[in-house]
Amino acid sequence: MGRIAESVLYHRVGSRNILKGQLEALIDESRRPNIQLQVLPREDPMNACLFGPFMVMSFPNAAETDIMYTEALTSALYYEEDADVETYTTLFRRLNMAAANVSQSRALITRALKEMVGP
């Protein structure tokens, strides 16, 4: 399961062919049955809450607590305090509700591909 902001679809790093390959790979991967890729539309107010990528890691053993992981420029941070993890878990749930569904997300990626690299 993955969520990305629509703005990253237009952030070109490298050549036009590299961007084309990346967007095509996202479309291909989004069709796999074990992948749920959703895009947060540019106009959604939830974009104001994004300060970079993060991951909430949950474990099957009830004795293990959830951990929130994020990367910074020169380090990685892990948060284990319940309040910190809950803040990010709540943010993730809200992003999940705000993101376009899978087929709409694929359409947003396809539109970005057409706009950025042409037919």
TrEMBL record:
Protein origin, superkingdom: Bacteria
Name recorded for this polypeptide: DUF5753 domain-containing protein
Annotated organism of origin: Streptomyces scopuliridis
